């Protein structure tokens, strides 16, 4: 239990700090897709020694399919996330991730015919109420106009794809192990982000010490983030893990204030806490 709790904390910290450095690089003109390709590529190179320890003939078709789809969803999710950070505030975009649970509940209603319980409805109300305080710090306020903003739309796309990614990763872990899942996440993420960079022809990079150091930190932090995520997924229900990961919303507000001088921190923290509570209720007691 102590080891799992430590992995959750590592995941929350590494994910939030990598967002900080990703935002710094996009502010320096780097393409979000190129940032993610370099990250995936660096991690894949680090994973080369693992390749020789795998029983490749023992991998099932289901594992390969989940690995490919997980890599695609991860590449899209991470790219949309960095694209959102390029255009928006970290202290606003971090808490938006709590809407992942609302999206999951809505999908359950319309696709599976699952009606939410009283606790589920309470959780949804809290998420929406908390987001009111977050979005009220923006010029558009809590409105449809806000949802049309690029950063908010990209963040919603990111949470949808990363939610799907979590399911595929969990399946790969179930069919193999943590190391195998981590390698496939890195490799297929690299493949799909390379295709994105190739299509968009975004290859330019400033090779100064600031950019290179931030890219190295992103590789390290994202590696820690994903491996700790896999570690947690292997030891508990995905929905429980995703609920715990929502705590990164509060850290995102603090980091947005510290690194980017983002304002109205108290109001954002209050809204973030409400959203985290609502998300946890919705995920665990839906």
Overview of this protein structure:
- With 286 residues, the chain is an all-alpha fold.
- The protein has one domain (2-284).
- 80% of the residues lie in helices and 0% in strands.
- It has helices spanning 2-27, 32-46, 48-51, 61-87, 90-96, 99-111, 118-135, 144-147, 150-175, 178-200, 209-233, 238-245, 248-260, 265-284.
- Helix 6 (99-111) packs parallel to helix 14.
- The chain is globular.
- The chain starts with a helix and ends with a helix.
- The mean pLDDT is 84.
Fold topology:
Elements (H helix, E strand, L loop, with lengths): L1 H26 L4 H15 L1 H4 L9 H27 L2 H7 L2 H13 L6 H18 L8 H4 L2 H26 L2 H23 L8 H25 L4 H8 L2 H13 L4 H20 L2
Helix pairs in contact: 1-4, 1-11, 1-13, 2-4, 2-10, 2-11, 4-9, 4-10, 5-13, 6-7, 6-9, 6-14, 7-14, 9-10, 10-11, 12-14, 13-14
Concise description?
The protein is mostly helical and 286 residues long.
Labels describing this entry:
286 residues, mainly alpha
């Amino acid at each position: 239990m102590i080891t799992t709790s430590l992995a959750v904390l590592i995941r929350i910290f590494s994910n939030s700090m990598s967002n900080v450095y990703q935002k710094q690089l996009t502010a320096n003109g780097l393409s979000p897709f190129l940032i993610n390709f370099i990250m995936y590529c660096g991690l894949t190179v680090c994973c080369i020694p693992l390749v020789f320890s795998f029983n490749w003939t023992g991998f099932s078709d289901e594992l390969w399919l989940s690995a490919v789809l997980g890599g695609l969803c991860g590449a899209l999710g991470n790219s949309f996330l960095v694209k959102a950070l390029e255009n928006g505030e970290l202290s606003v975009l971090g808490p938006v991730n709590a809407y992942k649970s609302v999206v999951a509940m809505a999908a359950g209603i319309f696709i599976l015919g699952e009606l939410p319980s009283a606790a589920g409805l309470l959780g949804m109300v809290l998420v929406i109420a908390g987001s009111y305080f977050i979005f009220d710090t923006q010029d558009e306020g809590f409105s449809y106009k806000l949802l049309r903003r690029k950063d908010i739309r990209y963040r919603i796309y990111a949470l949808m794809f990363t939610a799907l990614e979590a399911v595929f990763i969990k399946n790969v872990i179930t069919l193999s192990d943590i190391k195998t899942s981590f390698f496939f996440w890195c490799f297929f993420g690299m493949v799909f982000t390379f295709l994105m960079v190739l299509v968009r022809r975004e290859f330019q990079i400033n090779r100064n010490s600031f950019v290179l150091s931030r890219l190295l930190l992103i590789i390290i932090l994202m590696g820690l983030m994903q491996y700790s995520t896999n570690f947690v997924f292997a030891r508990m229900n995905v929905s429980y893990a995703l609920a715990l990961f929502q705590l990164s919303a509060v850290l995102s507000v603090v980091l947005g204030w510290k690194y980017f001088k983002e304002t109205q921190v108290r109001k954002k923290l209050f809204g973030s806490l409400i959203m985290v509570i609502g998300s946890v209720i919705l995920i665990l007691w839906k």
